[in-house]
Amino acid sequence: MPSDELAEELQKRLLEKKIAGASYDKERKTIEFPEEMSLVQWSSVRGTVEKWVKGRNLEVEDLLKIQSTAPEASQEKPRSREEAAELKKRLDAMTLKEAEARYNYLQGKAFSELTDEEYEERLALAETLSKKSKGK
Q1: β-strand partners of 31
Q2: Which of 16, 24, 88, 98 supports an S-S bond with 94, CB 3.0-4.6 Å?
Q3: Under a CB-based contact definition with an 8 Å cutoff, are residues 88 and 124 in contact?
Q4: What is the pTM of this model?
């Protein structure tokens, strides 16, 4: 963050949007978020920050933090693969009309209202519909 005043202003904006857990580190001039944020929560943060940045001669920069994986994280991978396989199976069973209707339904909901599963489904549906429309 370029200044403490801007950081405080952004923190207020995030709290207004009910995004809690952000903390400003004055030494490093960064706003940090909890590690356990879901994709939906992160999308909400990113959208809020991008809107706030417009017109302020600022830009958004994403940073990744690399850590060793804990035993818990490696146990989650097979489950997420199973979930991905189940989602793919469900999408393959849908007709084009059903897929479009489901996508339109999910697209009509705000990101903050979507569950993690719905968010993943929305992304997969968009990809599937894109591939099907190119194949016409």
Answers
A1: 24
A2: 98
A3: yes
A4: 0.41
Element of type H or E holding 15: helix 4-16
Residues 6+ apart with CB under 8 A from 1: 7, 10, 24, 29, 30, 31
* pLDDT tens for each residue of the chain, 136 residues long: 567 777 777 777 777 777 777 777 777 777 777 777 777 777 787 888 888 888 777 777 766 555 555 555 444 445 577 888 888 888 888 888 988 899 889 888 887 888 888 888 888 888 888 877 766 5
Distance CA 117, CA 83 (A): 9
CB environment 23-54: b (16+ within 10 A), e (fewer): ebeeeeeebeeeeeeeebbeebbeebbeebee
Tokens of 114: 């979507």
Contact 49, 58 (CB under 8 A): no
* E strands present in 3-135: 23-25, 30-32
Separation of alpha carbons 115 and 19, rounded Å: 16
Q: H helices of 17-115, where?
A: 39-53, 71-93, 96-107
